[in-house]
Q: What sequence folds into this?
């Protein structure tokens, strides 16, 4: 399966579980997307654990201009304030539309479990056809010498355990937005697919 087919399958499978999938050219556009979405939803806060210092500063400046509060880490004291979580997904699994995040850090777990909306950036080159294709990467993270926590996220949180009625957002975010950062080598047509 080539890169274009992987992107298409990832998009189709993620959308089949009610994730919103968009393409962005860079982190700046991804940060703007998350901030705009937060404002559209009436949110006042955003948590972005594990960003590089450069991206954190860029987001902080954008938040100040938009009147949105960037929640500082550690996030535990802000657990009930998180409207939008902004994260970087380590991999995507095209077969199921699943994101894989190294969630060994508590702040990532808090943000991705307690936010109303989760916006995740996924580099197109990190999309794999299936879970088996991630065997080496997962083995490296799940090293027996150090504790690790991998989260597999497929769509927004949903359950039908409560009186067999579908409930959204019970065990996590009500919305999942996947921003695929397409490789520069893709044409405009492939990016808009």
A:
């Amino acid at each position: 399966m080539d890169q274009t087919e992987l992107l298409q399958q990832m998009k189709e499978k993620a959308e089949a579980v009610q994730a919103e999938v968009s393409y962005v050219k860079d982190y700046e556009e991804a940060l703007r997307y998350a901030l705009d979405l937060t404002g559209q939803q009436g949110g006042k806060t955003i948590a972005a654990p594990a960003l590089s210092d450069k991206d954190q500063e860029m987001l902080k400046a954008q938040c100040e201009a938009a009147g949105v509060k960037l929640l500082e880490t550690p996030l535990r004291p802000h657990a009930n304030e998180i409207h939008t979580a902004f994260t970087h997904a380590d991999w995507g699994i095209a077969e199921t539309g699943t994101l894989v995040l190294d969630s060994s850090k508590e702040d990532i777990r808090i943000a991705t479990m307690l936010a109303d909306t989760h916006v995740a950036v996924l580099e197109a080159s990190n999309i794999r056809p299936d879970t088996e294709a991630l065997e080496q990467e997962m083995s490296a993270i799940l090293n027996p010498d150090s504790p690790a926590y991998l989260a597999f996220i497929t769509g927004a949180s949903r359950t039908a355990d409560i009186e067999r009625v579908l409930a959204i957002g019970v065990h996590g975010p009500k919305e999942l937005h996947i921003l695929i950062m397409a490789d520069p080598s893709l044409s405009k047509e492939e990016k808009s697919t």
